[in-house]
Every structure is written in C-alpha cells, then in structure tokens.
Amino acid sequence: MPLCFLSVRPPPPPLITCHVSPTAVHPPPSASAPPQVPAALPSLSLSPSSTPPPPPLTCALHCPHFESCSGCTHEFNLHRPVIVDEATEFFKTVGVSDFTFDSCKLWGWRCRAKLAIRGSPENPLIGLYQEGTHNVVDIPQCKVHHPSINAAVELLKQGITELRVEPYDEDEGTGDLRYVQMAVTTHNTSLPASERYKNGKVQVALVWNSRNENSPNTEKLQALANFIWRNGGPRSTVNLIHSVWANFQTSSNNIIFGNRWRHLLGERDFWEHVGGIDISLAPSSFGQANTRAFDTLLRKLQKYVPQGASVADLSVRCIEINKESKVSFEKTVDRLPNSVECSISWHLADTSKDPLSWIMGSDVLVVDPPRKGLDASLVDALRSIASAKRKAKSSSDSSSSRGKDEKRPWMLRAKEASVQIGSEITSEDSKSWPQTLIYISCGWESFKEDCKDLLSSKAWHLEKAHGYNFFPGTQSIEVLAVFKRGQGSPKKKRTGIKQKKRL
Ligand SMILES: C[S@@+](CC[C@H](N)C(=O)[O-])C[C@H]1O[C@@H](n2cnc3c(N)ncnc32)[C@H](O)[C@@H]1O
C-alpha cells in the first residue's frame, strides 16, 4: 500500500495549501426521471444521533442493468448505504462518537471503469461480468458511469463493428480486444469550473490480445484507435476523447493488464485536480474512480496534517509498489505550486518488507491500502512501535545516528529506486517516530480488523473517523480514520470508572 510519511518540524505546516470552493449543490432529481447529466446532492454530515432521512425515491438508481450487472448491489437510498449504521456503531465502540458521513454525486460518479469486451464484431458486449459467471453484461446505460464513458463505449462499439474487430473469446483464447479502461479527466481549465465535470474527456486504453505492437493483428488496433480519434477526438462534433492507449496482454489468467503500454493518439499527459493540486495519472497507475468524493476526502485529510505558517520544513516520502507510478509522481511534483518548498521523495518498495524501517523518521503516516487492508507485517510494526522506540533509543545512544541511518534499508533503497525532490531528510528527522496515523480505507471489513489490532496494542487510539460515499449503488464506503499515538485522553477513562461505580 502506498505510504506517505510526513516529517514536520514545528511550526507544523499544511501539506498542501488549497482554497476550498463549496460543493455545488443542486436540488435532488425528480423521482420519475433520473438525470442524464448527473446531479449532485448536498454533502450530508450525519451525526450518529440524527435520524436518517426517510428513504427518498429521488435517491434510487433507476438503472436498466440493475440485477443483471454485478456492479451495483443496492438500488435505493444511494445517499446513505446501510453500512453507515454499522460503521457508526463500530466507531462508537472504539471511542469515536462523532463519525460523519459525506455523500457526493449519486449518479455519473464513476470516472474510471475497466470493462470486459466479449461477443462478436456485429454484436459486441462491453460491460461487467454477471455475478458468479464470466458472462459479460452489456451496460450501455450504466447510471454510475460518467456520461462520457457511456458515450465512448458507444463509439468503441461502432468501431468494433465497422472494422470487424474480434472481441476476445476467453474459452478459446482467440480474438483481439479483451478489455477497455475508460478514465475521465474533468480538469479542463479552459472551461468555467461549473462546466468541467460534465465535459469530462476520456482516456481510452484498449487491452489487445497480442505480445506487442509488432504482432500481426495490431494493424486493426491502430485502425480502431484512428476510428475512435477521428469520430470522438477534438476535431469531431462530440469531442469527448482525450487520448487512446494500447496495453498488450496475452496471458490466459484474469489479470486485465499486461506489462506493455503504448501511447497511440491524443495527449500523453492526463491530469486531474484533487485536494487542491493537479495530479498526473498514467493509465497504468491506480486512480480513484470517484473523483469528486476523493477530492472531499483529501480536503478533510489536510486538516489532520499539522498546520503552520510555512511549508519549508515539511518532508514527504511516498512509498509505492507499482513502478509505473514513478513518472506520474514526477510530473505531479513538477506542477506543485512554488509555495510548496518541501522535500518530497518517491520510493519503489513493498511496505510489507521491513516495515519498521519505513515507519521510522516520520511524524505523520498516511496509509491507503488496497481492499484487503494493511499487510500483517505493517500492522505488527505499527503495534510494536512503542517497544521499537525504546530499542532505537538505546542503540542510537551507543553509535552515531548518521552511521546508522546510512545502513537503514530505506536509505539504501532510496539510492536505487527513488526520486528525491528538495533537501535530504536529516538525521534529526529520522529519529522521530510517528504521532499520527491517517488510514484511508476502501475495505470496511479489513479496516475493522486492522483498527482493532492497532487499538488492542495500546500503541494507538482512534481520534476521528469520517466516511465517504465513494461507491453509491453498493454497500462499500471509504473511511478516513485518524489514529494518534498512546491511549487517548484520560477523560474517557475516568468516565468508564464512574460508570462502573454506578453499576
Ligand atoms: C487503494 S490504492 C491507493 C493509491 C493512492 N493513494 C490513490 O488514492 O491514488 C492502493 C495502492 O497501494 C499500492 N500497493 C499495494 N500493495 C503495496 C505494498 N505492499 N507496498 C507498497 N504499495 C502497495 C498499489 O500499487 C496501489 O497504488
């Protein structure tokens, strides 16, 4: 999981300086007609004591593919998945009684989709698998897709039929086109801010069943890319395609992407604007599907990074296992505002290996693991932080800290596979241990386990928790949880004693 380590000397600065404009608030759509252009709902902050609003039909999915497609599991109350009640209760049991839940767009929120392509040239099917099968359900009117994705899928279908491109046949391993990834950028600064989302442009990545661009069937790939660009690119009337990429994959397993990528047409760089900064995203790197909700989460996250007047003393280390994300990182850093003068480094590493060495030297840790949660070794390292601190102190007393730092694995790895922007992390920084752990989670079940493990060690307590409606139509939520070192305020303990006495 990518980790972000922030080392801050007082006065503590903000990670990113940004100006927050209020979320656009539109009235909810009418019950009978779900919007073609997605509406936004007011951001709902639900305190656990407030009664949830009645189930409005205005928050229903109204999707013709519901039940046949496996993408959405819940049709009603998109604004407040039932799991929010469970989360509210869970957080109460671990000391947080003011869990909040924010909802954003309920339709048209998905700005990234990976879709399987099956069927025939005359009748291509582009969509998700039916639950428990490998039958692809065609979802041309998907209600959670950004409308530009549905339009680009339609264009792709026309191209497949016109050029007689063979969709992949999983049983035989034949056919040319296996998957498509559609990613929407809503970052068009030439448009007024209010027009940008609905005019999002699509980066199309075609997953082609060949080893590389020199294989015999790739003429059709280029022809298909040209078709998409001619009919959907900037010179077309629809003007909705940002770029076309190819990925080459011949493996018979379920892994969507192969290792080889080629940029074919359009702009190479793909930018999005979240959390107050521009971020570059390659088709090969992970990107959040719900751009708007992610922006809301990031703006909240910034509040938990110590604030201050200057950013000069901030150092940030980003750890990623996916080497492809290095280029995106560099481009993103190049575009950071000049006012951000901190030291930022990117490290290619697996945080499950020697995690303690990554944790050392940081005041704030940000973890954003995949759905399965944190690796057990990282949880163990976070649990054992108090005893590790004692050990480190005694060994640094007996030898020079600079000498020790140079032997530390992250320093060595940093030389081999990292990008460092700004000044080196000093030995003074490296001696510090995290006081704050910010955990972003898309896997509720794994989060609960990790949270219980961290709290039972008594090395951490939970200070705040927020939920975000990242995946309306499902029972998944994104959680932002803020842990602090130690066992929390004595006030809570005293309350517990009093209650015991009263009993
Ligand atoms: C949920 S994504 C979050 C990415 C990023 N924070 C964002 O929002 O765009 C999880 C990321 O963890 C990375 N990852 C998975 N396992 C890892 C590990 N053991 N060490 C480092 N990174 C890992 C993946 O490559 C992926 O980019």
Automatic annotation (TrEMBL):
Task: Say which domain of life the source belongs to.
Answer: Eukaryota
Choose any GO biological process term that the UniProt entry carries and state it: methylation
Q: Which UniProt keywords apply?
A: Methyltransferase, S-adenosyl-L-methionine, Transferase
Q: Which InterPro entries match?
A: RNA_M5U_MTase, SAM-dependent_MTases_sf, U5_MeTrfase_fam
Q: Record's PROSITE patterns?
A: SAM_MT_RNA_M5U (PS51687)
Q: Which residues bind S-adenosyl-L-methionine?
A: 288, 320, 368
Task: Give the compositionally biased regions (Pro residues).
Answer: 27-37
List the biased-composition ranges (Low complexity): 38-49
PANTHER family in alphabetical order: BNAA06G32370D PROTEIN, S-ADENOSYL-L-METHIONINE-DEPENDENT METHYLTRANSFERASES SUPERFAMILY PROTEIN
For this entry, the protein name equals Uncharacterized protein
Question: What lineage, starting at the top, does this entry show?
Answer: Eukaryota, Viridiplantae, Streptophyta, Embryophyta, Tracheophyta
